[in-house]
Amino acid sequence: MAGNSQRRNRRTSNKKGATVGSGGKGRRALAGKGPTPPAEDRKKHKKNRIANAKAKQAARRPVARRGGKGQSELVVGRNSVYEALRDGVPASMLYVQQFIDNDERVRDALQLAQERGGIHLMEAPRPELDRMTNGLNHQGLVLQVPAYEYAHPEDLAAAAFDVGEDPLIVALDGVTDPRNLGAVVRSVAAFGGHGVVVPERRAAGMTAGAWKTSAGAAARTPVARATNLTRALEAYQKAGITIVGLAADGEHKVGDLQALEGPVVIVVGSEGKGLSRLVGETCDYLVRIPMPGGSESLNAGVAAGVVLYEAARRRG
To answer: pTM here?
Structure first.
């Protein structure tokens, strides 16, 4: 339209060239700064203040004295699941694959789960079971074992004193095979012991394998977990309990030790390394099991059983 060509800064040609403008500053000002952070990460926001207060409170919160919980576990495979159910391993959920071949082992496992009660049955597609088990050969059956409720080491001695008995406790130092732990639990139950103590790290825990080896004894014999085994033994000493460690070069023979007649903690090390240095130095007595047959060592389950028998014999 006539006259419009005289408007200031109006482009009257299709040729490219410099024009009056912001020099790109406006474009940079309009550029985005990324997604808005969550409220918990924004300073001066109410949720940010709440989150910071909770974090500070958690940092000041004292560590619980109880033994704590272990980790939940999955038992996979038809035979393994059936044997775990048959042997009384605690379970919370049995996952069954959809459209599974209903053979005899599957029927037996389902029947055991229903008879025991308290075990939920859940049907799941095969891809879901593959994901849960990280691709293991589950054969359509997966059993969930709940986290074990560990006692505190002090609870074992307190329970014995409460009923007027001298504590008889086994502590394991560096034993990493759950089957050995299960065997020790079984021996403690057989000879009237009051429980087993295991370290929190680098040690066997109460897994499904330990439950099976205990042959049901784990249901009535508490297992405690110690953050630091040496400190737990020192606490027992302050309570008037004698610490007896098993060592191949021990100064005393098991059959000659009168300390087994009173309150005692029997410390058993691993078959290969034996007791660790600090634990060995903490023991009041180091004893050996005479082996005329020439064997150099016994596994933890057998060694604990021998000493527990001698303690039970002396206590009458």
So the answer is: 0.72
